[in-house]
């Protein structure tokens, strides 16, 4: 029997190859601290390589002495009940006929398929490294155990129906993102088994027909204004202040900032090199390959010089933001979020979902407002594509007002001269409006938040670390 056919037999529930009529003797064990009735029996199991292995197993029936003791007769009745299911396996002839018949992939049990996907893909280590990043692996396992398997564990592939899956997603999930995650996990199981040639190439992934409703957000999508941001940061102390300043000036993820070591900082050139991230004390490569990048921190170089001078350990492998009680480990992101929420609550601008990632969204938005293109912003942010940058970009009301005012002046005929002159006049007025819109200097410095981002954007970024 070929190994792939043995896999299909195992995934569809498998067959037993021998029908035995067993009536082993019930024995009393007296050489242990507890006395009990037991018996031994034989059973055959189909292995993944198609071979058959006979096993001799041991089964305890119950105590033979004490308050809850059962008689030998009761033990024999229990033995017969256990062996009834085992002795009803097909004969070798019946099993041989089943083995020669083609196996219908639709009879595969989804729970068996999911177990193979989890073992051979989600939890697989290659060369001492996991195939999947720790956050992705944790999310897959959690969703599989808590949501997918409780509903679809015993369902055969031929019984999957689009409406049933859609109804389950819409009644189980409270957010669009949760629905998208569960659908993608189930679809990924089918896709991976087709790739492994367990399912034929002609097999239609049943999740492809499952369409999600229009996207909605459970939490409010917003960024703080410049004045609110200045107020929040003014209530923070180092290292929390410097961590959040880095997020807002360079657009880094909080996991990337906490994964920084001294060797990643170049104060003379005013750059940070993103090569790793720290997620729940797990140090690994960043979220995507494009996340490995060099970032300019021109406005924060002096701040970093002062901060490094306060560190007890300044070796190249020392953490830039170590734990106060254990410098050998990086800080937890939960502590940064807690301090940020306290500051925002005191400033009266806290909201559900607010955190260092909100500053990343603000950086992406403001970077484009000061002249950066969406492609430049996407590369600096380390996004996999420009479409993700679009999701992070907020068009604020002040931006609306500026564009409306400029458009209204143009329509009223205040622009004269050739098109090139009108364009130059328009750019001059836009710069003037931006200068008026800039708030007071943050942290007592000579530049606004948007100025800081503008200066970081204007510095030519060194070559990528990829």
Structural description of this entry:
With about 475 residues, the protein is mainly α. Helices cover about 45% and strands about 10% of the residues. Strands 1-2-3 form a 3-stranded antiparallel beta sheet. The longest helix has 20 residues, at about 175-195. The model is unreliable at about 90-100, about 430-445 and about 455-465 (pLDDT under 50).
Which properties best describe this structure?
mainly alpha, disordered C terminus, hpI Integrase, Chain A, DNA polymerase, domain 1, 47% helix, 3 domains, three-stranded antiparallel beta sheet, 466 residues
**CATH architectural type of the largest domain:** Orthogonal Bundle
Can you tell me the overall shape?
A: elongated
How does the major sheet shape up?
A: 3 strands, antiparallel
Strand element count: 10
Spatial order of the strands in the main sheet? 1-2-3
Relative strand content: 5-15%
Indicate the percent of residues in helices: 40-55%
* Uncertain stretches: 91-100, 430-447, 456-466
Q: How many DSSP helices?
A: 18
